[in-house]
Write a structure and sequence with these properties.
Elements: H1 3-27, H2 31-36, E1 40-41, E2 48-49, E3 57-59, E4 62-63, E5 69-71, E6 84-86, E7 96-98, E8 104-106, E9 110-114, E10 121-125, E11 134-136, E12 142-144, E13 150-153, E14 164-167, E15 177-178
Antiparallel strand pairs: 1-2, 3-7, 4-15, 5-6, 7-8, 8-9, 9-10, 11-12, 13-14
Length: about 180
C-alpha cells in the first residue's frame, strides 16, 4: 500500500473510532459494556449497534417516554400474550436477552414475536423465524427484521398496562428503548 493509502486508512480508522465513541456516549454505553461486544450489521435490516453484548446479555427494555419496561403481564408464559409497559421491577418477565440470532428472549425459551397478520408484540416459543428477529439501533429504536416496524407504546401511552404494538417507525420517544 502506498504512503497516501496508509494515511487515508489511518484517517478512516480514526474517524470510525471517534464515531463509535460519540455514539456510545450518546446512548449511554460505557466502554466496559462496549468491550463485552459491539456488533455492527449491515444489510436489509439496516445498521445496528449492540453495545451491551449481543450474545446472552440480559436486561430490561426501558421506554424513553415512560421510563417503564417492556413486561410480560402476570409473569405468564402463555404463547400469544401481548407485552405491555410496566414499572421496572427486575422481574424475570422484564429481562430480555439479545441472542446472536437477533432474538429477544425472555424466560430463556420465549421470544418477542411480531404477531402473524397483526400488529401486537407478543411472546411465543422461540423458533428462529424472521418475525422473532430484531435490530437494536443506534438511535434507541428497535426494528423488526421481517417488517421494519418498531415496537411502540400504543397511542404514545406511558401508563402501566399500555400495550406494545408494532407501528411504522416515526422517531417518537414511545418507540425508543434503552437496556438500562
Amino acid at each position: 500500500m502506498s504512503r497516501r493509502g496508509r494515511t487515508k486508512a489511518r484517517l478512516v480508522s480514526t474517524l470510525v473510532v471517534a464515531l463509535l465513541t460519540a455514539t456510545m456516549s450518546l446512548i449511554g454505553v460505557s466502554s466496559a459494556q462496549a468491550a463485552v461486544g459491539i456488533t455492527i450489521n449491515g444489510g436489509s435490516g439496516g445498521r445496528t449497534f449492540d453495545g451491551v453484548g449481543g450474545g446472552g446479555t440480559s436486561g430490561v427494555l426501558r421506554g424513553q417516554a415512560s421510563s417503564r419496561c417492556i413486561d410480560v403481564p402476570s409473569q405468564t408464559q402463555t404463547n400469544g400474550t401481548q407485552v405491555t409497559l410496566w414499572d421496572c421491577n427486575g422481574g424475570a418477565n422484564q429481562q430480555w436477552t439479545l441472542t446472536s440470532a437477533k432474538q429477544l428472549q425472555v424466560y430463556g425459551s420465549k421470544c418477542l414475536d411480531a404477531e402473524s397478520g397483526g400488529t401486537r408484540a407478543i411472546i411465543w416459543d422461540c423458533n428462529g423465524q424472521p418475525n422473532q428477529q430484531w435490530n437494536l439501533n443506534v438511535d434507541g429504536s428497535v426494528t423488526s427484521v421481517q417488517s421494519g416496524l418498531c415496537p411502540d407504546a400504543n397511542g404514545a401511552g406511558t401508563a402501566n398496562g399500555t400495550p406494545i404494538v408494532l407501528w411504522t417507525c416515526n422517531g417518537g420517544t414511545n418507540q425508543k428503548w434503552s437496556r438500562s
